[in-house]
Model the fold of this input.
Amino acid sequence: MNEKIQKIKELSDDIGVLYVEDNIGLSNNMQTLLSRMFHKIYIAHDGEEGYKEYIKHRPKIVITDINMPKLNGFQMINKIKLIEPQCKTIVVSAYDEKNQLY
Done:
């Protein structure tokens, strides 16, 4: 498995990832996981900070929670998409309101 992870890391050399999560424990765990596959990882703890980190680093992938202080994940994604419509986003959340997730 380490060979596959190493190959992913080699292929992702120019791909930055922004992870936005207000839970510090989850954020630390995800940073550890992502660092196994990506060289450029940026961390933010609320939507406003996430947007600022996006502007600063312009990562190709944004992984975000929904419920966060200042800006929620959807609001942050909408602001990012205005600047870079091609940015890939992944929403990871314990939020269970189906109409919001849709």
About this structure: DSSP finds five helices and four strands in the chain. Helices lie at 2-11, 24-35, 47-57, 73-83, 98-101.
